[in-house]
């Protein structure tokens, strides 16, 4: 972020073309795909670049993201807009579900429920969002997440229900 005359601030955001990642997602399991993103072999989601968050860990049924709250996340009353927490949580929750899916399968968020329990500011320090799968069925999956600071203090928690899209003949887990 750069400050200009009159207190005006600017921020430049760059991201990679997503077509390579979209193509890779069709041939890799969800876990393999997300691990490829972590290794930098395929581009991540542009929304992560825009808002300044990133995945840092994935395993079967689990995804961890980190974000450093900053002034550019603020709402007009001087705290981080709740949309940042909701977006990071939606990403961690969805990716946790994605780690359980076979190659060619996908998902979309059907429902997202976020409980904000304390205000976030740039002084909150880096926050970690851990999403974990609760259930994966043939057509839907559910997951839960917590957004915490380095000391474990809770800032938000939530759940999701995702609709699953499986390739023909690829049954689901029950």
Determine the strand fraction and express it as a percent band: 25-35%
**Strand elements, count:** 8
Largest sheet: 6 strands, antiparallel
Number of helices: 4
The tally of domains stands at 1
CATH superfamily: Hotdog Thioesterase
Order of strands across the main sheet: 3-4-6-7-8-5
CATH level-3 fold name: Thiol Ester Dehydrase, Chain A
CATH top level assignment: Alpha Beta
Order of helices and strands: EEHHHEEHEEEE
| SS class | alpha+beta
Query: Share of helix among residues?
Result: 10-25%
CATH architecture: Roll
Average of per-residue pLDDT values? 94
Unreliably modeled segments:
none
Domain Thioesterase: 78-154
Family: Belongs to the thioesterase PaaI family.
Protein name: Thioesterase domain-containing protein
Keywords: Hydrolase
Description:
GO terms for molecular function: fatty acyl-CoA hydrolase activity. It comes from Pseudomyxococcus hansupus. Belongs to the thioesterase PaaI family. The protein has 174 residues and is an alpha+beta fold. The chain has a single domain, classed as Roll (Thiol Ester Dehydrase, Chain A). 24% of the residues lie in helices and 34% in strands. It contains 4 helices and 8 strands, in the order ββαααββαββββ. The strands form 2 sheets. Strands 3-4-6-7-8-5 form a 6-stranded antiparallel sheet. Strands 1-2 form a two-stranded antiparallel sheet. The chain is globular and about 60 Å long. The termini are far apart.
